[in-house]
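Our consortium's second objective concerns turning raw sequence data into structural hypotheses that experimental partners can test. To show how far this objective has progressed, the report includes one record in full. It was chosen at random from the queue rather than selected for favorable results. The single chain below, 396 residues long, was entered without modification.
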Amino acid sequence: MTTGVEGYMYPNEITLYWSVLIVLYPYITGLVAGAFILASLERVFRVDAVKPTYRLALLTALAFLVVAPLPLQLHLGHPERSLEMYFTPHRTSAMAMFGFVYLWYLMAVLTVEIWLDYRRDIVVMAQSSSGMKRWIYQVLALGSSNISERALAIDERVGWLITLVGIPSAFLLHGYVGFIFGSIKANPWWSSPLMPVVFIFSAMVSGIAAVMLLYMLIMRLRREKIDMLCVDTVARYLFYMFIIDFSLEMLDLIHRIYEADESFRTLNFMVHTKLYFSQIVLQIFVGTLTPILLLALTQVLKFPEMARKRMYTVAGCLTLIGIFAMRWNVVIGGQLFSKSFLGYTTYKMALVTREGLLMSIALTILPLFILWVLVKLLPPWPERAQAAIPAETPTQ
């Protein structure tokens, strides 16, 4: 994993224990949290303009949430050992408590909200389908067949409550990752009280950008007109979140510069050498300042619809690159210098290994295949579900 050592490092400081899989883990969970927050804008805060992305955001969050623990499982080497956190819980371990946070968010929040939102469509499709599809929808219906107005109103109220609970749950799901890094006092690169907050806002930025890109891509593949009011509104919220996220990161940087403790010289050397491309170029200029500028231009100037689509696409892609670079700089960058601040090492990512490049690419693409299956099974487009409803559908 490592090649080349500069300066003096103690033997136990040479190995990088956290690889690119640990970079991928907070990146995927951030997409989950951000997508759910975007969905909550319509459900809780009644931002009707983003309604076309509501169901797509929920399905996107579910697809990425299913894959979220896989990087950790592969990193463990013995994934069966992860079950021990449920059988012998360690309440003082933030990492061990992730299992319970993940289970709560998957089973009690996200899955239940999606089921309540789709319950009417599932019942209707179970009645109108045949063969294997009929059996699948009957299983998904969980024995429910009452789609009267009173039952649907109850679904709506309970779903609203679950979404309300899900907002702090989404913050907890991703914020605890930043909490783990921020609480490691022995590492000055990570030890910052702002780390959990920065992780939460960067998660919202990446999730909103991902759903915006997916919506535009899927509508293009379906050869349907993109709801520009929806995309403009999503881009506006992305711009707001980006400004807050960038401000927090700059506040943390200014605080480090002002404090200038004994580790500052080492961290400054890291930024200007080993992390120059990933942090200065990719994270700050390419992945932060450029998309902020593009989004700002769409807010103050009147561009044609086609120009806005292109600007949103470029801004969204660069945003995802920048947030991944941020995760890389935190996880990998925090392991490249010795605890004595006297030596530096480098990280070399293998190609075909359990924690190599190909495995990381596969884990990144896998949620998209899961999302494709979910979209086929549970269409997020209201007109598709409406078309499946026969005129004689019973109400009881």
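The partners drew two points from this record. The first helix runs from residue 20 to 43. The chain is about 70% helix and 5% strand. Both points have been shared with the crystallography group to help prioritize constructs.
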